[in-house]
Amino acid sequence: MTDARALLQELNHTHARLHTAKEDAFWTAKMGLAPDAAAARADYAEKEIALQRFLQDPQRLRAVRAARAAGGNGGGPLSADEQVGLAGWERTFASHAIESAEARALFEEAVALEAKLAGARGAMQLGYRDPEQGFVPASSVKLAAMLRAEPREALRKAAWEGLRSIEGCALENGFLELVRLRNRLGRLEGAADYYDWKVRRAEGMSKAEVFALLDELEARTREAAQRSLSALRARSEVAVTPWSVGFLTQGDVTRAQDPYFPFALAVERWARGFAALGIDYAGAKLVLDLVDRAGKHENGFMHGPEPAWREGSTRHRARIQFTANAVPGQVGSGYRATQTLFHEGGHAAHFANVDMPAPCFGQEFAPTSVAFAETQSMFLDSLLDDADWQARWARTRQGEPMPQALIEKGVADRQAFAAWQARAMLTVCYAERAIYELPEAELTPERVLDVLRATEQRLLFLAEGSPRPVLAVPHLLADESSAYYHGYVMAEMGVAQTRRHFLDRDGHLVDNPRIGPELREAYWRPGNSRRCSELIEALTGQPLGAGALADELVRSVDETLEEERAALRRLPSIPQAQGPSDLRAEVRIVHGAELVAELGAGGVDALGRDFAAWIDRLEAASK
């Protein structure tokens, strides 16, 4: 007979050990911290396999179910927390267990292939070809930024071609074999394909259910997106292409607003901005690595090597690390750094505040909903584009506020293309689904590229395809983020509903101290004990749906401007936070192995000053 209490303790501590080892190896490999990158990737793959063997073993799922049926055995009845903990483990193992030994072997084979693909991608000579200088090395982050801000069309096209070269690297280094392995795994487990198998585990929904939501959004944004693109073509002096559309719709505003988002002030704005919202990190240890460098993973992320959970009267505080790839001195880098701090800092606040009796509730993988996790981060980074937030917080280094005319231009430009931008996200989802739905005999580089281009053209109405080629999106290559991108679109739905809840009740989001406590109670403390739609409904009164987001995206520019002007008129009545900001966190800012700044006795002021001085030195060196 299974001893339920002993089993719970064993699961809690074994998982914590394996999870922490894997996540620490992940950070080392992704941040380029090891002298031998190949060895670091191999170590990460080994530790990932060890954790997955623990989670995928069907015997553990059966043992938990038997323990729940048996109760506490010799130690007396299980406490309420122990019962909840075992229920969490049952749900976790049900999201991971793989019955077939053949399927478990396929998973491990795929992990090894992913490591090889990551090695090839990391070794790739990425960059663009300057007509005057020849080949210029550049990260994907810099190439994407050039599409928005580089005034010379030839260089924008070269940057786009650089991004497209990532697709060739993936297709030549095992991506299609990885798709075959993943599909075999998904079908062995009874799903239609890998995408269907993955989404059922993470979201508790079928692929068809997920795409029913996406299909509604696609249909409702189609006409507005076509209108905005037609209007852009009518007024533009250059052709509207994948390498010009970002510049034509964002370039002027990006450059004009750049001085009001100084990179050096990004950390201080994050710390003070979150404190003004009543958000704290419940004693978590945070490590931030914010600046681009060679060998570093080219996409921002948050991960939690040590989940927050409670064990009796003991609370295990979270240890969380997050990263950005901002480029000091590049136009738009300050906004990007601030946005990433609000986004990844939102993820960190979510997971730091989980308060449940087992570590399985506070880790970011299945059964944690991708859509729900991204709702937290995207809700908080959405504030940066609000007119009242910019009027209060966007300042030059000299303290000059952003002019209202410039704020309104940003609002107007974003809203004019909001439906089209949403479809750019949808493009990744539909294209990735299409890859996994191809018959195995058609998984050739030529056929896959044909499918990707056709999907990009159908969704975005550009003959040459997408500004961000689908296989340049890093999520598609790694298991933990593949069949994942729909989560961002569903999160935008959750964000629209969450924003509407607070705006309808309180009239404002900026510096609203009720936001943090309510998110903590309704969204964060339960961890993954409830499904995404249930959690959204707990706060907003409505289950997750596409309606609120679609309404926002197709609204006219004039309607949007009037709403934002009303928010600006209300701003003087909204109190500003006073006194020191307390994040309730240990914070270290690093650049690889270098310690840049640390939250200590000097508080947020000293942390911000140290970071600003370091950024100033980097920006001076880049000129």
Question: How would you explain this protein's 3D organization?
Answer:
The protein is of the alpha/beta class. Helices cover 61% and strands 8% of the residues. It is built from 24 helices and nine strands. It has helices at residues 4-30, 37-56, 58-70, 80-96, 101-123, 140-149, 153-172, 175-188, 194-203, 207-235, 245-257, 266-276, 333-352, 370-382, 387-393, 404-416, 418-437, 445-460, 486-506, 515-524, 532-540, 547-554, 557-570, 603-622, and strands at 127-130, 134-137, 284-291, 301-306, 309-311, 314-316, 319-326, 585-591, 594-598. Strands 4-7-3-8-9 form a five-stranded mixed sheet. A two-stranded antiparallel sheet has the order 1-2. The protein has a two-stranded antiparallel sheet with strand order 5-6. A hairpin with a 3-residue loop joins strand 1 and strand 2. Helix 1 (4-30) runs antiparallel to helix 2 (37-56) and helix 19 packs across helix 22. It is globular and about 75 Å long. The relative contact order is 0.12.
